[in-house]
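Fig. S4 source data, part A: sequence.
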Amino acid sequence: MTVNRQVLLAEKPKGKLALSNFRMHDAAVPAPKDGEVLLRVKYISLDAANRAWMQGATYRSAVDAGAVMAGGSVSEVVESKANGFAKGDLVFADTGWQDYAAMPATGLIKLPRIEPMTHLLSVYGVAGLTAYFGLLRVGEPRSGETVAVSAAAGSVGSLVGQIAKIKGCRVIGIAGGAEKCAWLKSELGFDEAVDYKAGNTYAALKAAAPKGVDVYFDNVGGDVLEAVLPLMNLHGRIACCGAVSAYDGAPPAAGPRGLPGLLVVKRLRMQGFIVMDYYAQSAAAIAELRQWVESGKLKVQEDVIDGLENTPAALIGLLAGENRGKRMVRV
């Protein structure tokens, strides 16, 4: 335990993210100060938001060139100089992409010992809680309503659709490619799936949702959001989780057209959220998610990549839509 491998953001990307934007670096293992713990990173969470952090400040500060690439992880306490944490404890922390991190205890979330440990990053972690609170607290679906979700084969979308089915809704997933769309229906129980890569997303959605859409869970923004908007029913709700279409490379030439008029005429509610807004309620949410998983109502799809050195390529692949379910790196 003498070398701390780190993945640095060598330079901020000017277009699409590339391997050349990162570099490996060996540093000394840090020593925790009073009130801190030394963490050994076990699994790194990969999310489209990682790319947004390179562009500028969001709900967190931007990642600057030369810094350790930011990212959350499930980590194990190696040494503690803080009350309430002991060697062997598992925590969720913003460690960044490295083997070890010394972190203030105030920024840590203690985690239970659950097998498989990967579930702490997927269904019981940020992905599961984002799906749970975004759909149920922001979207507020009611039994019998139609729910559409974009990036439906991804970490959040795959759970959103299943939770909507549990709540008695008709579910339409929007994903890229016929294979993913078939998987959503055959494995996860979605009622319909629309391939946005096939062209004319609006026509395909209209056919899939003949009675319109009551709740739309938006992970991508851009053209897909524009296609869904005219199909929203009166008093529909749109939960804005992300805008991955604008994260990597050049942003879309235009935002969704007709948005202001449709919001007024259809009395739509469009609300952005981040999962940290609801962390105080996370214990109850995780308890319900565990019931659904253990009863077989909620299937968990994970995509685990081995090796810290493969983290940049794994994020680039995620942004290209390679993954099904939650992608993470086993350090």
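Fig. S4 source data, part B ends here. The chain is about 25% helix and 25% strand.
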